[in-house]
Amino acid sequence: MIQKGIEIPKPKGKLGILLPGLGAVSTTFVAGMYAIRKGLAKPIGSISEMGTIRLGKRTENRVLPIKDFVPLVKLEDLEFGSWDIFEDNAYEAALKAGVLKEDLLKQVREELGDLKPMKAVFSNDYVKLISGPNVKKGENKYDLAQQLIEDIQNFKEAKKVESMVMVWCASTEVYREPTHVHQSIEAFERGLKENSPDIAPSQIYAYAAISCNVPFANGAPNLTVDIPAMIDFANDKKVPIAGKDYKTGQTFMKTILAPGIKARLLGVTGWFSTNILGNRDGEVLDDPESFKSKEVSKGGVLDQIFQVDKYPDLYSNIYHKIRINYYPPRGDSKEGWDNIDIFGWLGYPMQIKVNFLCRDSILAAPLILDLARFMELSQRVGMKGIQEWLSFYFKAPMCAPELYPENDIFIQLMKLKNTLSHLRGEELITHLGLEYYD
């Protein structure tokens, strides 16, 4: 239970952000952080750094920057660590990713060059279309987890950080349903020691993080922490967890458009979505099993927002199709096309067409910053387990088993801000407004 109006202790020392995966997303984030610190750019898209929060009635005109309302770790107090299957340092990896311009990267080359990836826990059983030499070896998966724990402890000592968070930035793993090994931490640890094929690399990272009391946010559609074993483990260790799958491109647009369509009670008969992208993520998703993980996380968004069981006349016959196409020339500049067949008064048909030419890593980078700072805040105020108030950042938000996930982006943002207000003992914003007319 979150306490209302608690005294929030100020952050102490530095925060270490641990990033499994040193590819396009994480190098864009880290390079961006160094550029922002040097005054070369602004943290566009970051709620924790640029967002505001309204307090009290509109007539009071009390609007504060979020970073002044709650004590967050300052940008200059962030340290970065990473694992990757390739040996390239962050500067070399950023050049290969091709997201940021070389003239910007050169201005932070020294800092990026110092970030060298640790050997990764990796398996081609879970990511089939890429491989690299910088991979750990061990007697079993439990041994690999212990090696990650040692990496985390060494990073803390070397960087002299007071606290840490882990934010998953590595590839999408193949789709898997939970099995018996995921039902309890005892079964999971036994599975680690017995080399269970049902335990994915991302779950080994999550286990290591939680073992070290490090909050874990899952930026991919993998199961990872969305299993009973990890949820119970996080609660027992009093560690915040969140996920899953960053809400960046096409699904970001869906969570904006679908609530508006539903608000006007317009019907939908079909929603066709296709993407083309050419980065490492696109290459990995060219594997049907990895695509299945992404398809599931993307596909559930409309079901929840439209509430088919509540509005059968409007949404019971939706044909929802999702496609992702690997197209190397496009690089990180993803293009998402949506065709939406809607109908209105008397059933007359209409169409909406959206062509979103976005940059996946540019949209993801500020999410990593916010998640790292808000997860650290969660731990500092004693919040543990699933952090549903951070659903704003995810395609398939985790929530308590008896609940459905909230996917309406506007409700998610209100939930985030109301949680911050609740922590500070401020009145929650209801937008009722009748008192202005009494």
Task: Please outline what is shown here.
The chain has 438 residues and is of the alpha/beta class. It is 38% helix and 17% strand.
Q: What's the tally of helices?
A: 16
In helices, the fraction of residues equals 25-40%
Assess the beta-strand content as a share of residues: 15-25%
Averaged pLDDT: 95
Overall strand count: 13
CATH architecture of the largest domain: 3-Layer(aba) Sandwich
Structural class: alpha/beta
CATH topology of the largest domain: Rossmann fold
Question: Would you identify the CATH H-level superfamily of the largest domain?
Answer: NAD(P)-binding Rossmann-like Domain
**Lateral arrangement of strands in the main beta sheet:** 5-4-1-6-7-8-13
How far apart the termini lie comes to: 35 Å
Can you put this structure into words, describing what you see?
- This protein is an alpha/beta fold.
- It folds into two domains: 15-246 and 361-423, NAD(P)-binding Rossmann-like Domain (Rossmann fold); 250-357, Dihydrodipicolinate Reductase, domain 2.
- The protein contains 16 helices and 13 strands.
- The strands form three sheets. Strands 5-4-1-6-7-8-13 form a seven-stranded parallel beta sheet, with helices on both faces.
- Strand 7, helix 10 (228-237) and strand 8 (240-243) form a beta-alpha-beta unit.
- Helix 11 (250-263) packs parallel to helix 13.
